[in-house]
């Protein structure tokens, strides 16, 4: 609707004896009170409830449980990662000074390592569901447990001739979860074939940095998966959960080589923590932005404008009273300035 038409639409009819905007408002209000009965308190309450109910679905969509979980998960990960980063920085400084031949007694280093180990033990309870054992954060999925399946490796699959393996996890699987391996398949092709086959039961396959097969599944479901995997011709197969690469309690810090190895692991862990902090901060920012009230679609805006126009041009004094009361002190320039913000 053009601006001129909108401002003309909301101008109430002139009332004799009143030439100023304030007089128009007062005259309109007096006419409305004289002609139409005032709504009762019960009617006002019912109208308020109806308006709140009408707004509820859009608000629920913007602030649903999934979005709230995402915000809490990212914030929890950021808080935990900040503690880990501070402890890693302190340990890095102590290891560096010890290697330089000054300060940081062995007992102090061991105490730092124990403190870091204690904090790592609380990851699942304090770091949130999105932070995995490698201190990696992914805002789009929960933390994953890495594991291997005994007897299922790249070398054995490449050495065998053409074969088809069927997989099941508990009561799920059977013939439909079957993967065929051909002679000459590369490591990547084998990993992709297994990944596509096992994805329907929540298990993914890939290659680690040493190009060895590694499987992942959500940490929360690993206990129900680890003893339930079966392969045709082998029956139930054993699985081995891969420990976290950062294990400060296992460090032997009594000689320069061990100190250098510990420092190397600390620096690598710090790099992972920084990447995860960036990822969690981005996830938090995106989730917070989505909690804002969504913009109304153009079709709905047009409908609201049409309803307003119909109401403003009617001869119902109750409607005119509500409109003019709301527009007291609202000038054309203010409306134009507000519309300019869009």
Automatic annotation (TrEMBL):
<protein>
    <recommendedName>
        <fullName>Flagellin N-terminal domain-containing protein</fullName>
    </recommendedName>
</protein>
<feature type="region of interest" description="Disordered">
    <location>
        <begin position="1"/>
        <end position="22"/>
    </location>
</feature>
